[in-house]
Amino acid sequence: MTGNKRTWAIGTSVLALAILALALIVQNQANFAKDYLHDQLAEHGIIFTPTAGLSPAQQKIPCLVANAGKPLLTGAQAECYAKYQIGIDLTLVDGGQTYFQAHYNGYLMRQKALAAAKTAPNDPATLALQTQAQQAEQTSNDLLAGEATKGLLLTGYAFSVMGERLAQAAIALFILAGLLLIAGLALLIRSFRRLAPEQRAATRKSELLAV
To answer: What's this model's pTM, rounded to 2 decimal places?
Structure first.
């Protein structure tokens, strides 16, 4: 029985060390995710719009007001800026149209301008169509830039969430490793405590046989 307890104690302790090593690896990856995102965001130098520069709708968003004038450095800030700063701003560019809608409308406008240029190149209406086509192209380009930036920031936010989940997993693994290590030590101590009386009994028996 004592030998079994020692075996369990050693096995539990080894398992605890293995889980501890895994926890350290997971924690390292969590720290990497956090630090990497911070450094990447810092390189872009994005600053939240001061409160005075926010639209009335944006002034009702708590995270925009709380971060007003601050640098964008975290995943939570990236989500806030993407959804409410860029997201609301984009609705003002072309009546709430997306890039794909604006780009297609611009394409149709360019086709009309090209057709008009072939039939009546000097007609004022043709020049007006060409101007409208150029404006539509600029609008679609603005929407593309905004939506691309929004998507990248939301991807960064997702990356930060993964880092947070890894950090939580690391904490759970640290706790599990600690509990297993305590259990292994307890089993080892109990095995030695039970061995002591057995050794004393064996000693007395050998003394009696010697007499």
So the answer is: 0.75
Report the C-alpha gap between 160 and 28 in whole angstroms: 14
CB 74 within 8 A of CB 160: yes
Q: What is the pLDDT of residues 48-86, one digit of tens each?
A: 999 999 999 999 999 999 999 999 999 999 999 999 999
Q: How many residues does the chain have?
A: 211
* 78-90 burial: b if 16+ Cβ within 10 Å, else e: bbbbbbbbbbebb
CA dist 114 → 110, 131, 140, 141, 169 (Å): 6, 12, 18, 20, 60
- Residues near 126 by Cβ (< 8 Å), separated by ≥ 6? 113, 116, 117, 120
